[in-house]
Amino acid sequence: MIIVLDRGATESQLDEVLREASRSGQQASVTRSKGATLVRLDAPGDLADRLRAFPGVRATLSGNRSYVLSSRDYQETDTLVRVRDVVFGGTKAVLIAGPCSVETRDQIFTVAKAVKAAGAHMLRGGAFKPRTSPWSFQGLGEEGLKLLAEVSVETGLPVVTEVMAPEQVDLVARYADMLQIGSRSVQNFPLLRAAGRSGKPVLLKRGMATDVDEFLGAADYILAEGNPNVVLCERGIRTFETSTRFTLDVVAIPLLEKLTHLPVIADPSHATGLSHLVAPAARAAIAAGADGLLIETHPDPREALSDGRQAVTMAELDALMGPVRAVAAAVGRSF
Amino acid sequence: MIIVLDRGATESQLDEVLREASRSGQQASVTRSKGATLVRLDAPGDLADRLRAFPGVRATLSGNRSYVLSSRDYQETDTLVRVRDVVFGGTKAVLIAGPCSVETRDQIFTVAKAVKAAGAHMLRGGAFKPRTSPWSFQGLGEEGLKLLAEVSVETGLPVVTEVMAPEQVDLVARYADMLQIGSRSVQNFPLLRAAGRSGKPVLLKRGMATDVDEFLGAADYILAEGNPNVVLCERGIRTFETSTRFTLDVVAIPLLEKLTHLPVIADPSHATGLSHLVAPAARAAIAAGADGLLIETHPDPREALSDGRQAVTMAELDALMGPVRAVAAAVGRSF
Amino acid sequence: MIIVLDRGATESQLDEVLREASRSGQQASVTRSKGATLVRLDAPGDLADRLRAFPGVRATLSGNRSYVLSSRDYQETDTLVRVRDVVFGGTKAVLIAGPCSVETRDQIFTVAKAVKAAGAHMLRGGAFKPRTSPWSFQGLGEEGLKLLAEVSVETGLPVVTEVMAPEQVDLVARYADMLQIGSRSVQNFPLLRAAGRSGKPVLLKRGMATDVDEFLGAADYILAEGNPNVVLCERGIRTFETSTRFTLDVVAIPLLEKLTHLPVIADPSHATGLSHLVAPAARAAIAAGADGLLIETHPDPREALSDGRQAVTMAELDALMGPVRAVAAAVGRSF
Amino acid sequence: MIIVLDRGATESQLDEVLREASRSGQQASVTRSKGATLVRLDAPGDLADRLRAFPGVRATLSGNRSYVLSSRDYQETDTLVRVRDVVFGGTKAVLIAGPCSVETRDQIFTVAKAVKAAGAHMLRGGAFKPRTSPWSFQGLGEEGLKLLAEVSVETGLPVVTEVMAPEQVDLVARYADMLQIGSRSVQNFPLLRAAGRSGKPVLLKRGMATDVDEFLGAADYILAEGNPNVVLCERGIRTFETSTRFTLDVVAIPLLEKLTHLPVIADPSHATGLSHLVAPAARAAIAAGADGLLIETHPDPREALSDGRQAVTMAELDALMGPVRAVAAAVGRSF
Known about the structure:
The structure is a homotetramer. Chain A is an alpha/beta fold.
């Protein structure tokens, strides 16, 4: 049994809880974080019921799971995550688009204007790229961040970009409006903590072999630093099926919606790995309740320095959004 | 290289093809089936181009794949599968609903009337049940088939039910309008052949570890018997994620649509295994382009003799179809 | 709680059990099979303890699992399965070798003599072949069975070969010493029952997505027909890793050994799909406690009509068995 | 086509290669790292053959793969990795044992002496622990490192411990003899680079969803920093089978041995997650050719602060090593 105290709970309120546990002959262990203070009890009995009424006690959680602060049991109402004027988790769904990697000034300006015209609310683009091989293009680094910041000013689009290491967080946070934690970093716990401490909104992508419990445990690392602004992203899991790059776990979207108060978006580009499947995957994600989409867009996918097969052209983005908007309307959402 | 001859191709047309291959110094091997005659050549060069123009030649296919007759290369236009007055593969999506197992006369009549009222076009219900354990309820057998036939007359709903062995095909075909080949039988090749020979429309469910190539190879076994009436069903694949019973591979639906002319429906009940996820999974499948849905419905899911956790009540079916119809409309379909 | 009665338990012994259950106010349901009679009780309390001492009661099993008769709780001592003079499950490990498919008289006679010389105890060879595509070689059928029977007489090697459908069981049983149920048929329940009724020893291969509980549930279908002669075979499961054809789940071997009294062998050929990995996979399986090996051998793998990439030559079989025998000795076994 | 130059290749040798490429009308791109200089050519033809003979050219590699320096094509002979007097990759296999986490001075001293007595060559123990939940025990941090260093002096056992972030590398390298990169960090590229730059030997664990190509790509990140001392560790992959914590991919061991010159060891503790399966998994790994074992050992597994179910007691370690040594001898190895 876990007793979660309010962030504002006082030491004396904590003491009361511990005293009551002790009176009932229970061992209690305390974990403090910026996000919350937890008291763990082994054998709760009706003690939990009593403690729920104590001042400073926010929630009592049972069961064997890795997450506390991201759970619906801890917070029933939906978290809204704001990135400048963009809001994740409300009735309006969010479209993030842009290239896999920032490649050149021309490329990113061209894409940014086009995706804005197609209705995108935010721009994505990688400056630090996690690549399977050290011999592949690794991204433009800070130069890429500068281009993103510049194009953000020009277009008014907030920017999200990946951060790969704790010591990059300050640098990336200086240029970007939202930090992306990529799939391969979903259990990079020092990075999660550093992103949490940055105070910036975080886009947390599910790992390719991360189950729902682990995904929310990862979110808890950020929340535990006192940063509530986490958006989850389903981006496909690794399965035996190799016709597509990954398998979009579309049902994870409503499942997460039930388990957590955090917004959940989907990345149909990585999930499928094939540009001609991005449109139906995007429609499916929205139909299942996703709060937004992350779509890779490139002026000339065949020439992309990374992940060209899954990028749609700007014209394709524009075309696919028509039916996506219609599906959104069908489930009571708009873009 | 595979040369596929028209079903009506004559022996002399085949001879011409073989002679031409021989003139080019090519080894050719011939496979005959009711569905088609195939000529396989090792080293085609421009021979394939020439042969494509020969009388009786329907298509020439390259590549290393398990399926021929179910491919779009063999037949470009969509196959429409008719089951009495129900049509799979047209603009109207098909709703099949009913219990996992036929349990009692009362149960099946109650469900059938309720699902008809909720707009279902066909009734499902298992009489022969493939159960993991021999000690579980195995279905009512022929008694169940009789109840299905009776309720079908009463409600006017065509009936689909599972057949598990070649020697059951005649029996099941006597009572049912459509034969279901279940997930565990997707590579039961003698059963596929027998179902093909029966001439009845077949609902072929994807196996839990069947990739797209194998799934279409299985369909080809039925088509090779001269039976073109195959409807494919995505019903979730087995992955590392155990929060849901299986993982709905929603992107397989548009992928199949590209590769095959056969209709594709989805089974959100087995895919999720949890009744509260059936609605979003159903919406996702339709948004991705599914030609229909197969939904398990039970008057009292907690009392179901099999798979109760995934069955929706009749009221839930009715409620979930509202948004499903709206999503269908958004992608240019109706139910 | 499941109460299992001895096969020889009388009706009056069953009645006693049911009366005792009734006296305790328990609902009981009875399942009879040739293999055993089961009584299922919902809320056992100390009733189970009392019933364990009743005449005719063989075992009381708790827990939520698909198998009863194949469990160690039902039978603690190892089952020895005899196929003519070959014994599975004793200290001597069994080597089964031979081609994927019987192709010609020459081929099968050449292989049989060579594998016998290499120390094989049994010959394998497919006559009815489950192939992903209907357009691939489907096996020689009864002609292949006749060749197997003939070469068995000539070499003295017992023969195991696959059976794919219930109506083939009699035919195959006429020629073969042991029936193989292939991976794709592991949950072909009518086939399992028919193989059980045949009385022949059965080699049951794990499915590519079958978990251990389901695998033993499948075995129970055979045992429930009163046929105790089942040998299990781990042959690789389907995972995301495609460098090998399947992933040998070598740890399933000792896990099965703990859960079931049935012998367990391994098939390193299908598990790896690559001939150069058969030797280390075979050593690993034996080191983990396998009761035998099933190895595909072909006189000229490049010319094999099926699965050539995974077949070893006869010389390679001979060479790999040296270290395999050494490993067997290291774990207290011999071949 | 990739042309790899010797580490000692001069600029003028590189110029010669580029000039030759240019003469043949080829585009060439150059990547420099401490570990090697690579020249990538699009359309090699016979140019590659000519270049292979150029001074300074070490190897020419074709194919689409993520790794270069770790491949057998780049270096045919086995790499021997030395950690003080311990050598990985020779005929002697290496046993690393110790607890999941360093918990107390008593615990780590007790374990260290016991595993040394059981024949361990190195001690493992986590000070920085990657835990799924932020609310679980996170390790003792630097305090744990100090205890490891102290017990290493006392017992003479070199120590390996996990490092989770680039900025921890210096700290951990000060106390440990070998850095462990855990499964969740296998694609933490900044960490791999930092570990490479540290010059310390690195134990790189395979990720739970990392395929062989990606695993070797990760190794290349370390090698590219000029650090050749990488030991790979197979520790189980995530599959649908949940009877064990992960699935030991035992065949990956000989597959890696074929593809790479780096040593490969196995971790039967994490692979199985169940202490009673550690012994057979360890035997299987050694039989398949592993260069060593990493086994979790705890004085009282039920009281362990992490991963207690998979830890063996010191007596169990001692007992299981008997048969492991016998299997090692059977394949020409010793411990």
